[in-house]
Design brief:
Length: 377
């Protein structure tokens, strides 16, 4: 394997990212780009983009799958497991602690002042990481125009999975027409989803809990908010979870680091205690490890095929455009007063002026500024 990285080093990096990774998938991927491409030079922007494109083509939590991709790419099977588990475990442990406190005392601790400053700092980190990826992904006028279209349509709420596959398919068809290779068009087989009957019992076994979350992990595309929609359908509407518990699970997912899917740990604990938390967590993340293990070896094959390379380039530009659209949406919700403008602007100056600065310091600095400004003003 080219440029193989010691598993210990892979584990250390993703353990750190799991601890400081506030802000959701776009922020996590930005931090990974900074650490893996800019700081450690484990891969170039193009390969990082290819892995990002592959991540967006499969269901599951994007940032977790990106971590698994990088681990597998740099350390084989051991790297796959080390990167995935080390990125997930900090969030799961922190969420598990909040789940226990919540069940014991019926409320969550107040950390809003810190989150107030962390969010605008995260936006600066995302912009800093997406900028070089955007420059690398715009390889032609067509891809530039496609990126603008995807960015605009994403702002209007069009599903990202349609944008991803639509962009790739359009580029592949245009390439085939230009090169008169109509026979190369592959038929697209629809994915048949196994429908698991809804559970309507007042109590649920861990086996049933496992199947519920395995199904969600295997078919869910999109952000954490899509996850919460699934949870509402599968658990709240069947009486296994209260609406307030779901709202509190969403809150935990937002203010803890690491993947938002760790909210499932909180939900599982409320339903069946420690065993429910463990079973739910394993089930929701298991499909991601399987999907990445299957698709990662195909990336070089895709890049070596001109037609599939055109498909991948279009998916890459769509990925960047969607991240930028997410950043705009986050900015509207987060940067709402002069204090958050100041935090975002200060963080951006640090990100662009000191490119090797550790994103952890930006996150912690934003949290500290937010805490002070929130209390003073």
């Amino acid at each position: 394997m080219e440029n193989k990285i010691p598993v210990k080093e892979i584990a250390g990096l993703f353990l750190k990212l799991g601890i400081i990774g506030f802000g959701g998938p776009a922020a996590h991927i930005a931090m990974m780009q900074q650490e893996v491409v800019e700081k450690r030079k484990w891969m170039d922007d193009q390969h990082f983009l290819d892995l990002l494109g592959a991540t967006n083509l499969i269901p599951g939590p994007n940032s977790t799958e990106m971590a698994i991709h990088i681990g597998y790419d740099k350390g084989g099977w051991k790297g796959l497991l080390a990167a995935g588990l080390c990125f997930i475990l900090p969030a799961v442990c922190i969420t598990g602690l909040f789940a226990w406190l919540y069940k014991e005392y019926g409320q969550l601790p107040e950390i809003q002042p810190f989150v107030y400053g962390i969010k605008p700092a995260i936006i600066a980190i995302i912009i800093g990481a997406v900028y070089p990826l955007a420059k690398k992904s715009v390889k032609s006028a067509f891809l530039g125009i496609l990126g603008i279209i995807i960015f605009s349509t994403s702002l209007f709420g069009v599903s990202e999975i349609y944008l991803m596959f639509g962009s790739g398919l359009l580029a592949f068809i245009l390439y085939s027409i230009q090169n008169k290779r109509y026979n190369n068009l592959q038929s697209l087989m629809p994915i048949t989803l196994i429908q698991i009957p809804k559970i309507t019992l007042a109590a649920v076994s861990n086996i049933q809990l496992f199947w519920i979350f395995l199904k969600i992990g295997a078919i869910l595309y999109g952000s954490g908010y899509v996850l919460f929609a699934f949870l509402d359908t599968e658990l709240v509407s069947t009486g296994l979870l209260s609406r307030q518990q779901l709202i509190d699970a969403i809150a935990v997912g937002q203010f803890t680091p690491g993947p938002v899917f760790s909210s499932v740990t909180f939900v599982g604990y409320q339903i069946n205690g420690l065993s429910g938390a463990a079973i739910s967590t394993v089930a929701i993340f298991l499909p991601s490890f399987i999907f990445v293990a299957l698709i990662n070896p195909l990336m070089k094959i895709m890049r070596n095929s001109k037609g599939l390379s055109a498909f991948l380039d279009a998916v890459n530009i769509a990925s960047v455009a969607i991240i930028l659209a997410i950043c705009v949406k986050m900015g509207k919700e987060t940067i709402t007063d002069w204090q958050t403008v100041l935090i975002a602007f200060s963080s951006a100056i640090i990100i662009f002026s000191f490119k090797k600065v550790n994103s952890a310091f930006v996150v912690l600095g934003g949290g500290l500024m937010g805490y002070l400004l929130y209390l003073i003003f």
